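Hi C.,

You asked whether I'd gotten around to modeling the 417-residue construct. I have! Everything is below, sequence then structure, no commentary in between.
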Amino acid sequence: MLEQRITAADTYDVCVVGLGYIGLPTAAVVARSGARVIGIDVSQHVVDTVARGDIHIEEADLDTLVRDVVLLGRLTTAISPAPSDIFVIAVPTPFGPGHVPDLSYVLNATRAIAPVLAKGNTVILESTSPVGTTEQIRDLLAELRPDLAMPGVADAPDISVAYCPERVLPGRIILELVSNERSIGGITPACAEAACGFYRRFVEGACTVTTARTAEMVKLVENTSRDVAIAFANELSIVCDKMDLNVWDVIELANRHPRVNILKPGPGVGGHCIAVDPWFIVDAAPEQTPLIRTAREVNDGKVDHVVARTVAMLDAAPAARASLLGLAFKADIDDLRESPAVKVAAELIARYGERIDLVEPFVTTLPRSLDGGRLVSLEEGLANDILVVLVDHSVFKAVPVEARAGKQLYDTRGMWR
């Protein structure tokens, strides 16, 4: 099936810089569409793993797809970029001290591709970034490659530079890379059209062109709107705890109103997007973003509330052990980035040590922040007196009522209500 979809007429060269949760699925999907793809990563382990046709992250259907395109020779890997027609930058954009955006990965990726750029190439940034980052890429390339005319500066530019963020849900990345719509922003309209031509080769969703700065802001706004909505749900859960109300009943009944759609609360907000991107807007306009800042503080503060409630349970039963169910930032994935569950676990382990057991079926080793923690099986975890649900993994949902009978339960996800 895969081989039948690839023809010589479709073949073009794509260099994907960054083989993480977005870069690797993107590289594989693009290779499936008919391109010759070279995936670049600074980690030799990642490069070697993918070169064997294996994967280093957990994502539905990714293992089969990567194996197939590697076996067909459509996806290769390397430490350094190679000449290509399209360059896609998909590297992390974390924040540093004071929630200041850290663009070092993006700029280093730009430096890496600069020597192999040629006339007619298109450079696309996919990393979620502050407004103006695509222009910074253009300016850095202009500095490193003065022999190439840059878009927005020269009347007849030699290359195109554009921005197109992903819009995918972990666990559905392969499907959504193809089906979801794309907002494609160019330094110039011609840059946007060049990038759009690339995405139309493998994206079935609508591809809408705009400016680079608009597309950058669109991505930040999408994630920030979710963060603000979740903050209301999390604050509501704290209020209901104080009033001894069941927040899940309150939300369910309120959502029966035809124009109300309250999201579900949890132990906080995690992942590389929603927990990070709002700070990019706050950093750019600190005086104009009190609501966005407060929402971030509410969601980060929910961790403290979860810790406090669990502490009260443990202090009331000094001989009891507690199992924390889940460490990922959302259900049925292995991604621990910015996970509120990890933060809760770290604080409780620091306070109670061996009284805390961790159950996370999607990882085999604990992150450094949980040194001293004990990873146990679900069966072992269910033997403890106190069960704290931090992630609503499907395997946890399937636990029968009798297996948790007589336990003290604190379900931050409303999974066992």
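If it helps when you're writing up: Residues 212-242 form the longest helix (31 residues).

Thanks,
B.
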